[in-house]
């Protein structure tokens, strides 16, 4: 295998001839390739091994030993429910060698020398993270765990995606600050950037097979919860905008499906003058809209630009896989403080049916949802069989719509305290209050974080000082307050459910005592067999409140 693929020389430890086997399994599925891939596989009964047994392989040029036994169980080691959260998913994707991650300090040096990034096949050995080092540093608690960072950007030409270093000059200077925020050095950042991480054109036959196989799990590098994603939405004048391209649409959509808002940053929103990385996070939160269903996503692709039109089918397939593997498996969705209105609530309702069997907690606190959005959510409740909590506190829902929601919630047999309406704001809120006015140069009014349609920022009415920071700070404060209120509401709901359960326990104990007093024998002044029913009832009450009873040292159940 060519060393440029990052695998180095593969030497058979047993010294036996190699044979061809089918492609390795990835992510619980076999890579759908018609051709077999040349992989070294040793079998030798004369050495006391079972026929067909795979022996250890060693990586020469990429550093360290690669043992296939260390990565045993790739085909089924990660469950579907945790596929985009389990670190083993990343390890398995790297173990095949189809994808490599680039060292942050090497990339920074390329930027400082004023050079452009080479394609994957031309990377020097020192630019590539070895799988063994990544795994070892992840397991070693004495050192900081490397942070994986994915770069999403627009290709500026077919021959080279960044021929003049436009993108590199924009994001490379930020790597050191990003690393410091994570208490790392730049050498602790592992970067996925397609030009350097995947084999590029022109490709040999083997490189083409590697490339096609890598595409079968490409969504991992945008959807995984352990990966942070930077969207480079700025493009040079005269080029196709980021949002009009097919692959960037896929990458943004997958990165914002279910992950934390802080994990996906739109660096096109970055303003000058920031001093701390927390300011970058605040200013550059990527816009979050309700995830598109696979059908809506596919319907929009013909309007997007692809360098190779055949990639459209790949993008459609991988989005469906990411959607089914992440959003449709989630038990909690958090969309608090995003300024969503009825339109977003209606869009969200259309896809709740697809995750109704797993979703238990839906957080919509602090938005601008009114009657129409509440009605859409009400209509979808019968399809959300697992839903136990719906938070709509701090929206714009009228009293009649609130009453209709409560009745629908009760008809569906939902938990009594699961619907949280709280206080409603009957006027849409502006994150920056009345202090933010329209930007005269941009010609558009500010909204949300204070951006005008032209990209300018609103200004404070007191003059001179930009208002984008105030808007962003206000939005961040609203989100923090919403999270705190949601946590307190969950505690209150649990306490209320526990109280109801204990009332039932008291009623059961009283009924039991009355039955005992009507002639049932007593033992040592205590109702016979009273302990077990009480403990059972308490356990039931705690289960109702979402609490787990703990076994006592004697083996019985206690609080």
Structural class label: alpha/beta
Name the poorly predicted regions.
1-77, 428-468, 520-559
Mean pLDDT: 75
Please give the share of residues in helix.
Answer: 25-40%
Arrangement of strands in the largest sheet: 5-7-6-8-9
Q: How is the main sheet built?
A: 5 strands, mixed
Number of strands: 17
- The radius of gyration is 28 Å
Strand content: 5-15%
Describe what this molecule looks like in 3D.
By secondary structure, the protein is an alpha/beta fold. Helices cover 35% and strands 9% of the residues. A 5-stranded mixed sheet has the order 5-7-6-8-9. Strands 10-11-12-13 form a 4-stranded parallel sheet, with no helix packed on it. The longest helix has 50 residues, at 468-517. Residues 1-77, 428-468 and 520-559 have low confidence and may be disordered.
Looking at this protein, list some descriptive labels.
alpha/beta, four-stranded parallel β-sheet, disordered N terminus
Quick description:
With 559 residues, the chain is of the alpha/beta class. It has helices at residues 87-95, 104-112, 131-139, 166-171, 175-181, 194-197, 205-215, 220-223, 246-255, 277-283, 294-300, 311-325, 342-352, 371-380, 399-411, 468-517, 531-544, and strands spanning 10-12, 25-26, 29-30, 57-59, 102-103, 147-152, 189-192, 227-231, 264-266, 332-334, 361-363, 389-391, 419-420, 522-523, 526-527, 550-551, 557-558.
């Amino acid at each position: 295998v060519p060393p440029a693929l990052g695998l180095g020389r593969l030497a058979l430890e047993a010294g036996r001839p190699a044979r061809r086997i089918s492609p390795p399994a990835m992510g619980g599925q076999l890579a759908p390739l018609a051709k077999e891939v040349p992989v070294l596989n040793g079998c030798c009964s004369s050495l006391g091994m079972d026929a067909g047994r795979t022996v250890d392989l060693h990586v020469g040029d990429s550093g360290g030993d690669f043992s296939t036994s260390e990565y045993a169980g790739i085909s089924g080691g990660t469950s579907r429910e945790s596929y985009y959260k389990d670190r083993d998913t990343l390890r398995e994707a790297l173990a095949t060698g189809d994808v490599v991650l680039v060292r942050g300090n090497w990339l920074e040096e390329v930027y400082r020398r004023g050079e452009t990034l080479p394609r994957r096949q031309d990377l020097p050995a020192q630019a590539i993270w070895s799988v063994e080092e990544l795994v070892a540093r992840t397991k070693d608690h004495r050192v900081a765990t490397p942070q994986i960072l994915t770069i999403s950007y627009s290709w500026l030409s077919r021959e080279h995606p960044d021929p003049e270093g436009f993108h590199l000059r924009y994001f490379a200077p930020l790597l050191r600050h990003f690393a410091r925020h994570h208490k790392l050095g730049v050498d602790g950042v592992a970067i996925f950037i397609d030009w350097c991480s995947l084999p590029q054109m022109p490709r040999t036959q083997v490189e083409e097979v590697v490339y096609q196989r890598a595409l079968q799990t490409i969504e991992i590098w945008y959807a995984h919860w352990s990966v942070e994603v930077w969207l480079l939405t700025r493009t040079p004048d005269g080029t196709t905008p980021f949002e009009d391209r097919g692959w960037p649409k896929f990458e943004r959509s997958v990165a914002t499906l279910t992950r934390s808002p802080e994990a996906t940053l739109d660096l096109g929103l970055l303003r000058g003058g920031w001093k701390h990385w927390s300011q970058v996070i605040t200013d550059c939160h990527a816009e979050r809209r309700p995830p598109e269903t696979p059908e809506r996503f596919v319907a929009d692709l013909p309007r997007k630009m692809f360098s190779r039109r055949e990639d459209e089918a790949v993008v459609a397939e991988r989005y469906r896989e990411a959607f089914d593997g992440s959003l449709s498996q989630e038990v909690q969705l958090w969309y608090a403080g995003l300024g969503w209105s009825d339109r977003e609530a209606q869009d969200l309702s259309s896809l709740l049916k697809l995750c109704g069997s797993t979703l238990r907690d839906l957080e919509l606190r602090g938005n601008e949802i009114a009657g129409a959005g509440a009605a859409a959510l009400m209509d979808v409740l019968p399809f959300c069989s697992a839903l136990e909590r719906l938070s709509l506190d701090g929206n714009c829902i009228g009293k009649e719509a609130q009453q209709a929601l409560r009745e629908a919630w009760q008809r569906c047999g939902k938990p009594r305290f699961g619907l949280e309406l709280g206080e409603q704001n009957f006027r849409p809120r502006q994150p920056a209050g009345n202090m933010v006015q329209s930007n005269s140069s941009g010609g558009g009014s500010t909204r949300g974080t204070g951006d005008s349609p032209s990209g300018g920022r609103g200004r404070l009415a007191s003059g001179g000082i930009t208002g984008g920071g105030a808007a962003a700070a206000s939005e961040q404060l609203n989100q923090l307050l919403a999270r705190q209120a949601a946590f307190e509401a969950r505690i209150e709901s649990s306490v209320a459910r526990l109280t109801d359960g204990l009332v039932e326990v008291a009623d059961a104990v009283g009924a039991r005592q009355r039955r005992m007093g009507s002639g049932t024998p007593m033992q040592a002044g205590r109702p016979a067999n009273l302990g077990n029913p009480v403990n059972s009832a308490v356990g039931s009450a705690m289960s109702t409140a979402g609490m787990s009873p703990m076994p006592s040292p004697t083996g019985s159940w206690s609080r």
